[in-house]
């Protein structure tokens, strides 16, 4: 087994003194390659903080976070950005597509950051849009697409860099139930193809599609469903 996320004795503290908030409180968690994990918990329990750590968008106050075997604390900003670009594909509730930009150019963005020529980037992006059933929408701008289509464009953008981990924050939160179902079917398919899927959700139906459910409360993991044990 190959651990892609290792969180060891991690606390995340915001603020200082009287305004100090312990958003994560001594958390330990290992996620292996090709797991399909849902992180659940009430508002304020630390889900976004955990996502930010896994996504290398933030560093822990205490403890060690290793992504794809690399200790994020030991990386400088350039290497951290690189790790993020290579290891992780982000999917957000609000899609975050670039406005007035076609689907294909949205998908191509992370490849351009990586230094591919615009021709190469567009070619790869068209292939990915085709895989997600959006070949005939490649020249559409976000406002010309439905919510479900926009989220699939966002997923194409997350996938085009061939990341190990897909990190999705409430990916169905802004979608009607049918489009949400399509997005979940897509994540399930990607899991079957070997991706590691980590998603945050407060919808139990969505969480139930995952093979492992981790519940946070007050910055601590209170249940880890795969082991079926309270921790
Ligand atoms: N940047 C921040 N500054 C101060 N407090 C924060 C910050 N981000 C989150 N918090 C606090 O940390 C706790 C966990 O927040 P968060 O990780 O956003 O939880 P969730 O995503 O589960 O709603 C909350 O009490 C929240 O108010
Ligand atoms: Mg949150």
Put the structure in a nutshell.
The chain is globular. Helix 3 (103-113) crosses helix 4, helix 3 runs parallel beside helix 5 (147-159) and helix 5 (147-159) runs parallel beside helix 6. The protein is built from seven helices and eleven strands.
Describe the structure.
The chain contains seven helices and eleven strands. It is α/β, with parallel strands linked by helices and 231 residues long. It has one domain (3-230): 3-Layer(aba) Sandwich (Rossmann fold). Mean pLDDT is 93; it is low at 227-231. α3 (103-113) crosses α4 (118-131), α3 packs parallel to α5 and α5 packs parallel to α6 (177-192). A hairpin with a 6-residue loop joins β1 (3-14) and β2. The strands form two sheets. A seven-stranded mixed β-sheet has the order 6-7-8-3-9-10-11, sandwiched between helices. Bound molecules: adenosine-5'-diphosphate and magnesium ion. Adenosine-5'-diphosphate is lined by residues 14-15, 21, 23, 41, 43-49.
